[in-house]
Specification:
about 475 residues; globular
Length: about 475
Amino acid sequence: MDSPTAVENQTTAEASTAGKLKPNSLGVLGILFFVLSAQAPLTGIAGSVPISVAIGNGPGTPAAYAAAGVITLLFSVGFVAMGRHVVNAGAFYTYIGKGLGRSVGTGSAGIALFAYCAIQAAMYGLYGATVSGLIAHYADADVAWWLCSLVTMVIVQVLGAAGIEMGAKVLAVFVLAEFSILSVFALVTFFKGGGPEGLGLAQSFSPGEALEGAPGVALMFAVASMIGFEATAIYGEEAREPRRTVPRATYLSVALVTGFFAFTSWMLVSAYGASKAPAAAGKALESGDSTAFVFAPIADLFGAWVNDVLPILLATSLFAGILAFHNSANRYLFSLGRDGLLPGALTKINRRHSPGVAGTVQTAVAVLLVVPFALAGKDPVLTLFSWGSGVAVLGIMLLYFLTSASVVVFFRRERLDTRPWNTLIAPGLGALGIVGAIWLVVENFTTLIGGDSGTAIWLELSIPAVMLLGIVGARLKRPAATAADG
């Protein structure tokens, strides 16, 4: 029988963690795997690079990834500086609220939730189509894409409820598999001296080549590949020594993602030859299987078995990304509930100290976003995937800009950190780069979503509409105090 003192200590410990996520459960590598999973490396390479090479700036595509990495790195300097003083699972909206005020902060929370749920739904569309194709190939069975997606939603819900550690371990396996095969291909190609035209360093990274064709399309996809790195701050409450862990994970993730995408895309272009890569990518797009542009040179190097393995890894890549965005979105819901901006029931945590109710709600939202496309008989890739991805890119880029502005305002007012580079210069330069990227996204939005201009306009308008809804909702709710208060 427990002594009164033991019971008393246990009660005190439980009270101290009430309404809180499990502390000290993630280190740098754990957070890093969540971030890299959100980028879905194989999905980004196989899905984006062929389009960028075919209709973007051709062999200059690797330079677009390098430019996107520089913009993101500049942004992350201020992002990390703010994270040293504000630790909250709401990340974006909390940071924005601290500098620009509660109304803008809560409006941005709506955009963040919308963007994360939209990109997760988009990935469910591509994932469902991919898995349905694998089943048809290996089991000779016709299974609808939406059924594959709905079954996976149940699995994601279970893993999310099982806790951060379980999710990190699952993601680690998938991420390592993706990175390994692509990285080995890139390294072998590099040390062999490239393809028929050599490494083609100047053709891929010189300013002249980078600005050829439609560089905006390539930069747009490059920026999209960076989405998810901000999750380093979302897991701050669950990190070990967050003041050190979060900055390290942030800088490491930006560096790894930038280096990986720039280097791998460079070696893909080199494998074909800079002069021949655009035509090869265009042919792959016309065939309806853009992944052939990526899979073919890897198979030529390692053997035909790659054609069986890579489609499976593409499915696991998508699954890892879906799980990562599920975890990010449910922590936003949890944080908004804790701050009184959404129903308090969202703050309920399960035995694993994970946001159980918020996770269930997030899964329900995923169902509501995916099912209408299934009922309407829409192509999951041409509509759900492309539309959801486009909206998410635009929404997240707006959040990046607002966060940069908030960092500058916050530190000018609070003077908690007086380093000019960290709190003014880098965030300011990052904001300018982000504005340029947003302009390019808007200019190329119809191309990005693969739809007509009317659809593009409605999707673009959804971003300010969601922000306005968040602002109005916050003014009506008016909690006594929130983490987003300026």
